[in-house]
Amino acid sequence: MNRRKFLRAAGVAAAAVSLPGKTAAADFENKPNIVYIMMDEWGYFEWSAMGHPILQTPNIDKLASEGVRFTRFLAGGSVCAPTRSALLTGQHTGHTTVRSNGGGTSLCADDITIADILKDEGYATGGFGKWGLGDAGTTGVPEKHGFDTFFGYYHQRHAHSYYPRYLLRNSEKVMLEGNVGDLRKGKVFSHYLIHEEGLKFIRENRDRPFFAYFPWTPPHGLWGMPEDDPAWQKYRDRKWDAGNQGDERDAQFYAAMVEMADRQIGEILALLRELDIERKTIVFVCGDNGGQPYFFNESHPHGFLAPNLNPRTGVRFRGGKGNFYEGGLRIPFIVRWPGRIRPGEVSDHLGYFPDVMPTLAELAGVEPPRNTDGISIIPTLLGVEAAGYGQEQHEYLYWEDPESCAVRMGSWKAVRPAGAEEFELYDLRRDIEELNDVADQYPAILRKMKMYAEDSHSPPCEGKVLDASLGFRGHREN
User: Fold this and answer.
1) pLDDT digits (tens, 9 = 90+) for 123-178
2) Residue 137 gets which letter from DSSP?
3) Alpha-carbon distances, residue 10 vs 6, 17, 23, 34, 122 (angstroms)
4) Which residue in 128, 176, 368, 456 is deepest, having the highest Cβ count within 10 Å?
5) Are 117 and 369 in contact (CB under 8 A)?
6) Sheet holding 124-130, edge to edge
7) CA angle 240, 243, 248 (to 5 degrees)
8) Contact, 101 vs 156, CB < 8 A?
9) Which residues of 279-318 are buried (b: 16+ CB within 10 A; e: fewer)?
10) DSSP notation for 306-365
11) 183-198 pLDDT tens trace
């Protein structure tokens, strides 16, 4: 065992034994449960603790007050599928398999995920929500990548409706009676079923270590939800001139879905208390990529709910979902573990989704795959003294998609936008809004960052379709 492996193994044990009555997390009986909740398109400022003028999220606020909130933890990509691929494989988008949002793109058969390594360590592994890394009939299905069970949507576009004709459980269709292909309404609201399946998984595995992965679709659109949902009852009659996708109530639906998700996060936390496993469970809550500035009108040029606009200072992160400016990558990222993580912490540690793989691996007492691009954030979560070693820092962070790329080196940010041949350069210490391109003033820094970009790209592996007849063909076709 080399020094780094030894320190990491020792760090987990030290984190456990540094607190009264705790034993080493590396021991099987005491491996922490892991709950990872990821809300689709939930913006950086779209919760009440950040001063949002409309949205009320008491459960998320409380969770943050009892744990640590990261101010500079970034998504793995700027759209749904690549950011999930970076999260689950621990590789940035120059290395991970899924790098675009095509819908049916899948992981390769030999890709290793967080669920793979946790399952090998004795964890029960369950996923509930939007997979996005391989449809039924491909090499990317979740049950072939470490999940004992996965319930929800596999194909990206299948998840565009909360009233699909069916959901999938381990590639088998679960028909939803009364849903006929209308994207906005039906008899069965899919997210209620997904949430209940997640709660059931936690109950069933209370006596063993578990990894509960909740890649929820809310508050992503198209929007529609039951008329009697308490959150919708709150917003349904608001007179907001802020439609987006054909319904004048789109903004009301979005606000209701954020608050519905907050309510359900509260239900998960309450269940952990009920089962007396709260102190054995580390909970992550985050967005999947930067917020989408939906719901434009003349009075709200940055989007009616303004996911990337600081309501207290007026500072706005540039861009949003779909690009690599700060608005496309900044996400809420909160971690809570009673008795282990000091409450009320705010961290400016610079990290991103590839770091989740080595962090969870360390919690489970196992090394991550060698090809991970991430760095464990255990010292930031538990403290350097408890971890037994100091927090490592990234030399740089990297993102790419088929048309653009970006590099982060400390406070420097280089972005080559879609359609451009040259990189832009921003000093985020002085220009967090990315308004002043300083590429001409710092050519040496830009050369170094372009070198990182060239070194970070590798040809992608391509997952395979094994049985096309099983795949999603459209909301009205199957």
Assistant:
1) 999 999 999 999 999 999 999 999 999 999 999 999 999 999 999 999 999 999 99
2) T
3) 6, 10, 12, 20, 20
4) 128
5) yes
6) 172-175, 166-169, 149-153, 124-130, 210-216, 33-39, 281-287, 333-336, 68-70, 345-347
7) 70
8) yes
9) ebbbbbbbbbbbbbbbbeeeebebbbbbbbbeeeeeebbb
10) -TTB-TTT--B-S--TTSSSHHHHB--EEEE-TTTSPTTEEE---EEGGGHHHHHHHHHT
11) 999 999 999 999 999 9
Query: Strand order of the sheet with strand 424-427?
Result: 397-400, 405-409, 412-416, 424-427
**127: part of which helix (H) or strand (E)?**
strand 124-130
Prediction pTM value: 0.94
Measure the CA–CA gap between 7 and 252, rounded to whole angstroms: 50
CB atoms within 10 A of CB 432: 18
Q: Which of 231, 224, 105 is nearest to 161 (CA)?
A: 224
**What digits encode the pLDDT tens for the residues 237-259?**
998 877 666 678 889 999 999 99
The C-alpha atoms of residue 324 and residue 82 are separated, in whole angstroms, by 13
Rounded Cα distance between 398 and 458, Å, is 12
Tokens read off for 457: 């790209």
**CA geometry: angle at 395 spanning 283 and 413, to 5°?**
90
User: CA-CA distances (angstroms) from residue 1 to 109, 120, 265, 371?
Assistant: 29, 20, 40, 18
Placement of tokens 């830009």 in the chain: 446
Concatenated DSSP letters of 23-51: --TTSGGGPPEEEEEEETT--TT-SGGGT
| 58: its two tokens | 């008491």
Per-residue confidence band for 223, with pLDDT thresholds at 50, 70 and 90? confident
Write the pLDDT tens digit of every residue in 42-86.
999 999 999 999 999 999 999 999 999 999 999 999 999 999 999
Q: What does the block give as tokens for 202? A: 């936690």
In three-state secondary structure terms, 126 is strand
